[in-house]
C-alpha cells in the first residue's frame, strides 16, 4: 500500500526584505535613465529642444516664469530640474519598494 506523506506547505515569500540602499540606488538609476531617454528621444523623434523638458521640470519649483525662453540653457534651472527629478524619483521608488511586497505578484507585474 502506498502511503502519502502530507507536508506542511508554508508560503515562502518570493521577495527580499526592504532595503533602503537598494530602493535609493534603483530609484536614482531609474530616474537618470528615464531622464536621459526622455531628453534624447524627445529631441531625436519630435525635434523638441532638450532644454524644454528641463525647464518644464524646473517650473515645478521655480514657477511658470522659467518656461518663457524654452530653447535656451540656464544652469540654475537645470540644477533645480535635476534635483527635483531625482527627489521625485527617490520618493516614488521608495514608496513602490515599500508597497510591492504587499501586492500579489500578478498585480505587481501588470501594474
Structure overview:
The protein has 111 residues and is mostly helical. The chain has a domain at 38-101. Helix content is 64%, strand content 0%. It is built from 4 helices and no strands. The chain has helices at 20-46, 50-62, 75-99, 105-110. α1 packs across α2, α1 (20-46) crosses α3 (75-99) and α2 packs across α3 (75-99). The radius of gyration is 22 Å and the shape is elongated. The chain starts with 19 loop residues before the first helix and ends with a helix.
Question: How many angstroms separate the termini?
Answer: 49 Å
Give the strand content: under 5%
Question: Rounded to an integer, what's the Rg over CA atoms?
Answer: 22 Å
Instruction: Write down the overall mean pLDDT.
Output: 85
Provide a count of the helices. Answer: 4
| Parts with pLDDT < 50 across at least 5 consecutive residues | none
Structural class call reads mainly alpha
Shape: elongated
Taking the sheet with the most strands, its summary is:
none
| Quaternary structure classification | single chain
**In sequence order, what are the helices and strands, one letter per element?**
HHHH
Amino acid at each position: 500500500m502506498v502511503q502519502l506523506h502530507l507536508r506542511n506547505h508554508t508560503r515562502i515569500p518570493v521577495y527580499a526584505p526592504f532595503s533602503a540602499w537598494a530602493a535609493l540606488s534603483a530609484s536614482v538609476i531609474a530616474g537618470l535613465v528615464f531622464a536621459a531617454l526622455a531628453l534624447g528621444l524627445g529631441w531625436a523623434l519630435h525635434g523638441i529642444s532638450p532644454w524644454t523638458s528641463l525647464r518644464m521640470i524646473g517650473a515645478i519649483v521655480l514657477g511658470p516664469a522659467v518656461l518663457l525662453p524654452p530653447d535656451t540653457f540656464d544652469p540654475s534651472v537645470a540644477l533645480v530640474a535635476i534635483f527635483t527629478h531625482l527627489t521625485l524619483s527617490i520618493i516614488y521608488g521608495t514608496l513602490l519598494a515599500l508597497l510591492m511586497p504587499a501586492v500579489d505578484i500578478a498585480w505587481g507585474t501588470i501594474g
